[in-house]
From TrEMBL:
Keywords: Cytoplasm, Gluconeogenesis, Glycolysis, Isomerase. The keyword Cytoplasm applies. It comes from Longicatena caecimuris. Pathway: Carbohydrate degradation; glycolysis; D-glyceraldehyde 3-phosphate and glycerone phosphate from D-glucose: step 2/4; Carbohydrate biosynthesis; gluconeogenesis. GO terms for cellular component: cytosol. Its EC number is 5.3.1.9. InterPro entries: G6P_Isomerase (IPR001672), Phosphoglucose_isomerase_CS (IPR018189), SIS_dom_sf (IPR046348), SIS_PGI_1 (IPR035476), SIS_PGI_2 (IPR035482). Belongs to the GPI family. One of its GO terms (biological process) is glycolytic process. This is Glucose-6-phosphate isomerase. The gene is pgi. It comes from the Bacteria. The active site is at residues 278, 414. It is found in: Cytoplasm.
Length: 424
């Protein structure tokens, strides 16, 4: 379902020459003997997921869909980005679907929080609070405000019926609150870290609330699992992509820019940045993951890509079939001079922009381009894409001798912030 094209990447090494290295790390990943092996539950998850909980998620999501105008999803990082990426990619940005999904708990911005609380005050509201640790400050701060809002609006019993908590099965403050208040809960598996958790209730429950077929996401995951069973670099494009990243780094390219031509993929890029940035950026190693949405950003970052310092390579995430398309109309006056496009589809224009840009960046700009093609922006493709990037991420990190599944660096800001906030 996803295909890698390396013919525009100026690779100076043969991808296949890494086959032995890839075989070694593939075995470590599958046998749970590599670095961070207590967090590789996602590898077999396409088959091992809890089917009973999966069905319960669908039922609870349906109830929420019937009851609410708005569902607030409260979480940050891995407990936020995947669900938002999926909902925007699959439904599009102006789907006009009920319930509206609004994200909170991902910022300390007082204006943002106050505006959301104001926006929902006269609406029918449900809340899904998500935190694996159950102690993340952004999420806890927003959830206290939301809990009070819900209890003021619906009373304790009404709030209980409208709040769902996704957290650890036993530990953490959120679990304790959920037990005390009697909230419906879903479990975040111990052996799946935040940025790999979109395929668990962390992502799947809000995605189901947004009306998306989560069975199709699991089908995509399972297909990807099958396609990646063989580490052969001639067949396994996720691993080939992982190798290409290392080859390009060897060529002095330390910045990877994930590029899409679909506006609804912007949050996919944010999710991808967390996946690669938090997994790979340690021990002073790793490529900086950045992103751009074209052609929008060709009118901002395009100049740098074309003529600026040659630090980056692009990874084009190209979608073959748009969710919707429009035929461009003819105009008898042709005052805007646009009749040369009459009868063409807008997606065709987008594809020509992509072709022209690739040529400009590759040939004139000397910027390597990896191209990953995906068929569409369906739920199944989303599941497949997640698994594709998970495998690529694990492999590319192992190739740097890094544990992909921890994030020791994010604790430093928290320590300083807690000191300044006066937390014991
Ligand atoms: O990838 C990660 O582990 C992090 O981004 C976490 O998901 C994020 O910090 C939120 O953590 P928690 O779910 O414990 O609130």
């Amino acid at each position: 379902m996803m295909k890698l094209d390396t013919t525009h990447a100026f690779l100076k090494e043969d991808v296949k020459s890494y086959q032995e290295v890839v075989n070694k790390y593939h075995e470590q990943l599958m046998k749970r003997t590599g670095k961070g092996n207590d967090f590789v539950g996602w590898v077999e998850w396409p088959h091992t997921y809890d089917k009973e909980e999966f069905d319960r998620m669908k039922k609870v999501a349906q109830k929420i869909r019937e009851k609410c105008d708005v569902c607030i999803v409260c979480g940050i990082g891995g407990s936020y980005l995947g669900a938002r990426a999926a909902i925007e990619m699959i439904n599009g940005l102006y789907a006009d679907k009920k319930p509206e999904i609004i994200f909170m708990g991902n910022t300390f911005s007082s204006t943002y929080i106050a505006q959301v609380l104001n926006y929902i005050k006269d609406k029918e509201v449900c809340v899904n609070v998500i935190s694996k640790s159950g102690t993340t400050t952004e999420t806890a701060l927003a959830f206290r405000l939301l809990k009070q809002f819900m209890e003021d609006k619906y009373g304790k019993d009404g709030a209980r019926e409208r709040i769902v908590a996704t957290t650890d099965k036993a530990r953490g403050t959120l679990k304790a609150i959920a037990d005390k208040e009697g909230y419906e809960t879903f479990v975040i598996p111990d052996d799946i870290g935040g940025r790999f958790s979109v395929i668990t209730p962390v992502g799947l429950f809000p995605i189901a609330v947004a009306g998306i077929d989560i069975d199709a996401i699991m089908t995509g995951l399972q297909k990807a699992y099958e396609d990646m069973a063989d580490p052969d670099l001639a067949k396994n494009d996720a691993y080939a992509y992982a190798v290409c990243r290392r080859i390009l780094e060897n060529q002095g390219k330390n910045v990877e820019m994930l590029v899409s031509y679909e506006s609804q993929m912007t949050m996919v890029a944010e999710w991808w940045k967390q996946l690669f940035g938090e997994s790979e950026g340690k021990e002073e190693k790793g490529n900086l993951p950045t992103s751009a949405n074209f052609s929008t950003d060709l009118h901002s970052l395009g100049q740098f890509i074309q003529e600026g310092k040659k630090v980056l390579y692009e990874t084009l995430l190209l979608v073959e079939k748009p969710t919707l398309d429009i035929t461009f109309p003819s105009d008898p006056d042709n005052a805007d001079g646009m009749n040369y496009l009459a009868g063409k589809s807008v997606d065709w224009v987008n594809k020509m922009a992509a072709k022209g840009t690739l040529e400009a960046h590759e040939v004139t700009g000397n910027v390597p381009n990896l191209i990953i093609t995906m068929p569409d922006m369906s739920a199944e493709s989303f599941g497949y894409m997640c698994y594709f990037f998970f495998r690529a991420c694990a492999m590319t990190c192992y190739m740097l001798d890094i544990n992909p599944f921890n994030q020791p660096g994010v604790e430093v800001y928290k320590k300083n912030m807690f000191r300044l906030l006066g937390k014991n």
